[in-house]
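Protocol step 4 of 6: record predicted structures for both targets in the notebook before any analysis. Target 1:
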Amino acid sequence: MNAEIIAVGSELLLGQIVNSNAKFLSEQLAELGVNVYYHTVVGDNPDRLKSAITTAESRAQLIIFTGGLGPTKDDLTKETIAGHLNTSLEKDEEALKFIKDYFIRVQREMTPNNEKQAHVLKGSHVLKNEQGMAPGMFLIDESHQYMLLPGPPSEMVPMFKKYGRPAIEKALGRKEIISSRVLRFFGIGEAELETELMDLIDAQTNPTVAPLASGGEVTLRLTAKDVSKENAEKMLDEMETTILKRVRPYFYGYDDTSLMDEMSKALKESELTIACAESLTGGLFQSQMTSISGAGAVLKGGIVCYSPEIKKNLLDVSPNTISIHGTVSEPCAKELAENVREKFDSDIGISFTGAAGPGPHEGKDEGTIWIGIARKDNKTKTFLLNLAGTRNGNRARTVKYGCYFLLKELRGEGDS
């Protein structure tokens, strides 16, 4: 089956919001083995939307719409589709009751135009909206399938996962099981990873291997199809084993995890604590770490030591170190990591110091960064990075590298 995703909303064309819905739906449909060859964005105009529908019908069997289901005059998706399909809209009493109950609950007056949200395409399967008011719809005719979903991702994502995806799976009538997993890599570029795996990618049939680079990381989505889930999982296991024989040093986790998640998990499992000395990252490492539930079990605390005076006065970095080597140096990173560990009485100390940019700092090129990792009864390790990018991009990647280096240490892969 081929699908097309049509996002409706002038705010998308004006650049006021990003079309994250299309990304999510494409990922979901890929897991179902449904091909998405086109994304279309159209403004709040019925004539242009009709044209987009006609074009989509010529090249896809499944058409998914996001947006335009609200109460205002410019919310015209279902009305336009109803006119295009020569059908009508009818009131869904369950949806209307849900909307009325919402206004009673929040003690607000319900304006008459809110009833519009309870109108659905005649004969469609209604998809409940448990996070908002406008329900979704799934309509099947002789040649096409039409799914209408709300625009806000906070409503669309849970609706599709709970009701939309199962409806499509049922319509496919497929007995074949589709299993997917994502392998996550760091410290290797997409081009290099693809070169290492080129023969596997070129020869892929079942399972398939799809690389994607984002945020300084690379992922591989493996997808296998079989009538047996056990066989599909076995195919994924075999492909994963083949891949990791070649690029294991860069592999860190599966699916929706992150470097910070995996590093925090490894600290908890090892029952180790950590303290941080952050210069160029300005607290970013600690901020991300405390966003994870249970961080208090492993994070003792830290110091944002942005100025040389704070490095000397609060973290006891030697004045000679700063005067001879500067703050963007291996000796400074080493002392910061060791001293913050001692001050917070933690098992591990980690430090970040460098020239984030724009431009050089202390005569060191932009993107020159040192990370230090100090552990009890272990020799302190330092890592030099030479990054290229924006100031905040360099800061974000520095945090990821800190997680990556520490994770490898905790997993006993520090010298791999």
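Target 2:
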Amino acid sequence: MKDKFYQYIQDLQDSITSKLEAIDGKAKFQQDIWKRPEGGGGRTRVIENGTIFEKGGVNISGVHGKLPKSMQAYFKVGDVDFFACGLSLVIHPKSPMVPTVHANWRYFEMYDANGKIIDQWFGGGQDLTPYYLFEEDATHFHQTCKTACDNHNPEFYTTYKKRCDEYFYNAHRNEGRGIGGLFFDYCKATKGMTMENWYNFVTEVGNSFLEAYVPIVEKRKDLPYTKTHRDWQEIRRGRYVEFNLVHDKGTLFGLKTNGRIESILMSLPPHVQWVYDHHPKAGSEEEKLIDVLKNPKEWVEAP
């Protein structure tokens, strides 16, 4: 399973980066192959200062070795070996009219002293962080997520949409990071779902990413914007940074397993503002976004 999924994320990285390069038309992803001293490594691809994309990363990694003490306590296990692989991406467009997007698909195994698998699971998801809310874009993104889910279980979309709203939440701000999407973790074999079933589900979600995001980029990339729009984008990016550094489990896992700092922090945007006690004007487009972040909406009808 680990070999099959690692091959899948390598292929997915290729398809996503080539498509985003084609849309940008100027910037190319710079590739960085790295190795982890304790075992494994990865392939980081970063795009910067493009026509459309100000900064973005589409990274894959496959790491293995002894599970660090800090993570042993987290998973409530003893001295075990582990393997983890995944694709993680964050794209920060230049235009405030185009949303930031994040996605991650991952697989994890733990082994006993004889190398036998004692636990394994999939996780991942994809979510959208707009700066200006176009409701039809939110509906499109969520409908694409729902279609991928419905092919496997009619309850998946409702369950994982709710988890996404709960997970990507800045509790210290009482607001969501964005308008959500899907978030799933610890997807383990059950009577109803084998690991092969989970593989098919996670890869279908991964395959839906470009369909979910690219049409939104194409629709919004040429809209005019002002410095006021850009300032708002940079203020909201500050909230994005706060989530990633304060709450995100993936960042924590990377830092505690001696992951590669440049790859872990590639999700941070290049230009950000923190304005003291900032509040959008009443009735403004900016306030409209905040209202949705504080009160998550149902963008598509459940079955």
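Step 5 preliminary note on target 2. The longest strand covers residues 53-66. The mean pLDDT is 94.
Proceed to step 6 after PI sign-off.
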